[in-house]
Amino acid sequence: MSLGYNLIELYGSDRMTISIRPFDAALGAEITGINLANDISPETFQIIHHAWLEHMVLVFPGQTLDEEEQIRFAKLWGKFPRRDRYDTRAEKDTADKSIMLVSNVRDTNGMPIGSLPDGEMMFHSDGAYDRHPYRYTMLYAVELPSEGGNTLFSNLCTAYDALPDRLKVKLSACTALQEYYSGTVIRGQNIGQKNGSFAHPVITAHEETSKPVLFVSRLITVAIPELSSDEQIETLEFLFKHTEKQEFIYEHHWSLGDFVMWDNRCVNHARRDFPSTQRRLLRRNVIQGTQPKRATI
Are 37 and 65 in contact, with CB atoms under 8 Å apart? Predict the structure, then answer.
């Protein structure tokens, strides 16, 4: 187990200690000593960026962020998606265009004020169905139920490393067809409008570290076209179970004020069930990425 480390920054007469504590898990770290509502210096940005590349999931507990402050911090990491369907989304009148409200809260007419309101959600990577998937996702906890609603994160680099060599070779020339319908939380449910469909390499190369990534998920990956129908079904089920092994997982138990950010290029995430009678509200920002490239193995 890592004991973590501290980094000190100086601002005139002020002295700030940033603490980075890796979790006893396959990924993830907690960072304290940074107030995300304040302006972030170039030095602090580099500290966060380095920690993100190393740990893939970062948790900043005890933050107090209004919508504008969250957007200002999120903008540091790149461009927001266009969100062409914003005018039809539930949060159109309650949140900025860059924000998705992940919430089961209903208005006075019984309509959800946000998206993905209820129940568990299978493992997936945000925007994988797009030619240019999302690079980062950020979630801020505004309201939480008394239990449940934990988010699980899977390390897709470590999952790749643990594959049998023969399967790595077999998959190295394959693509994974990713497809998603808005509002879907369970494989095959397809309850909303089709968001997109795109085939990326099964094994991608991380954009910055070049590490091989097993880019598949139970919710969004629907086919491996290069394989026969029977072989696709068998291979996909093996890969889903493989990436969901406990040895690759960090499970986050939310507290109010948690700000959690993760790297969609190498992390899948899922949500556990929670009481439908209790309010849950999180504010989400995503950062648009680039088209993943095939890894060289």
Answer: yes
